[in-house]
Amino acid sequence: xxxxxxxxxxxxxxxxxxxxRSAPAQAVEKLRAEGLKAWFGATLALKGISLGMKERRVTxxxxxxxxxxxxxLRCLNRMHEVAAGxxxxxxxxxxxxxxxGRGVDPVQVRRRVGMVFQKPNPFPTMSxxxxxLAGAKLNGVRLREEDALFEKALRRAALWEEVKDVLxxxxxxxxxxxxxxxxxxxxxxxxxxxxxxxEPCSALDPIATARVEELIHELAERLTIVIVTHNMQxxxxxxxxxxxxxxxxxxxxDETDVLFTKPQNPRTEEYITGRFG
Amino acid sequence: MAVSVTALGRLSLPRRLAPAFWGEAHLGDRAFRLCTAAFxxxxxxxxxxxxxxxxxxxxxxLRRFGPGFVLGTEWDPVRxxxxxxxxxxxxxxSSALALLIAVPVSLGxxxxxxxxxxxxxxxxxxxxxxxxxxxPSVVYGLWGIFVLAPWLRDTVQRPLSGALGxxxxxxxxxxxxxxxxxxxxxxxxxxxxxxxxxxEVMRAVPVGLREAALALGATRWExxxxxxxxxxxxxxxxxxxxxxxxxxxETMAVTMVIGNRAEISASLFEPGYTMASVIANExxxxxxxxxxSSLAEIGLLLFGVTLLLNALARLLVWRIARLPDxxxxx
Lengths: 277, 330
Ligand SMILES: Nc1ncnc2c1ncn2[C@@H]1O[C@H](COP(=O)(O)OP(=O)(O)OP(=O)(O)O)[C@@H](O)[C@H]1O
Ligand SMILES: [Mg+2]
Prior knowledge:
Chain A is α/β, with parallel strands linked by helices.
């Protein structure tokens, strides 16, 4: 399931080692938003965004608070429509197929496009172990595979060492930052093709942040990542491409190096240099 | 139903205030504390006084029949021979029947209202549901007499008797009025209570927990099953206890349809009698001290049964609401 189709066949390590963040041109678009609009009731939160997210690359979404970053992310796996009174318009192509098209099952979309929410939301009634396995169980993973699966997921989320002795405790008994990583592990255990991360490090200390950034690098060898972050340095460190959103519109999109060194739009420049007002 | 309300409160699990709260405090705080403590003590005192008075009133019967009163099956005012078992049986069986019918239906309704119904439909239906809970029980009783009992007799009991008449539950003559009608009317009466409280409890489950499940590729049902219901479970049991409390204590409507005969029968077609009904029916015309005292003891018994069932339910809440360690920090 992981390596479908042509673009998957190239050696993942090669591109990264040659130029870690220079985003080779041969990368194919895994996910593409076209004229994406999103409403909350009568409020238009996304005003028509077109943006491609390349396969096995990290795309960072930056922008001031309330500009629609989370909304955009939630439109990419059809989570936006879950909110009361929320609806979306436009197209989002996943491997060329419109996930908003007729006959597409949002449940299937969400199994392929995983998500880590801005606010950590572990299941409080489940143990840490069951939290990690929740998604896998929904997909009918057999008991024998469970052990390896959840240790791997927790290790990848840089949480294993901290929780390996308390796996039976509630997911809600962890600290905010641990919960955040638990939610990452939960999404990873499902082995998604695309991972949407909404500020996955907002509650983490520098060490855990570094671990998660390492994880993002590692994951990018196999899957497509879209990450929302308020931290410019982080965007610059982890992403190949960066998109700058402002008031529900895409202001600028480019390779991360270019966007941060030679922004075309004065607004982008103001934002990344911290002179935004 | 103080017990059930606490059960509901567990959903949010407020943490105990630090002991410092009880130590040095502002004058206003101290006055406030005294005031509220007095109210709390008042409630407890009322309960104690009630129990004491009831015991006093039933002293004669207690002395005469002893513990045998509870298991006595005879109720004969003429010969002054009194036993409570038929009423105990009637109350417990009709309430159990009511919960058996009402719990699945009302949980289903609550899930629909809280999770599945389109937004524009939720508040009107929710409002109607609450309206249903507000109808006086005598109106339910009238409806039971004129509509439910005849309908039960002709459309439910006759065919049942024909097909399954061999079973003890469905033996005897279909007559409409009886245990089945009593249980059913109670079910209809507790349904809105359980459903609307359950709906509130489920609405209180954070949106984030639903989204967490949905984002893992759960269907609506899987989300309800694995995320909403487990998070709401102690509150849901609280809702059921609330319904049980209403069923145990309900007097008027049941009295009007249950048949009011102090008999114990396995058949749902046969008439029965509940503790609340016999007190309401016979207290005004009870002649003789022993008769009055026996009715008072039935009241005491009802009080005890209610307390006992509440305590058991409380235990149940405590058992099933036990989360993995440390969950309270959430
Ligand atoms: N549930 C909601 N109901 C109504 N409006 C909402 C809702 N959620 C978000 N909005 C509005 O949509 C706009 C975009 O919100 P969004 O959450 O996408 O912002 P964001 O860029 O993620 O902000 P932040 O950086 O603070 O997380 C905001 O103006 C917000 O007020
Ligand atoms: Mg956000």
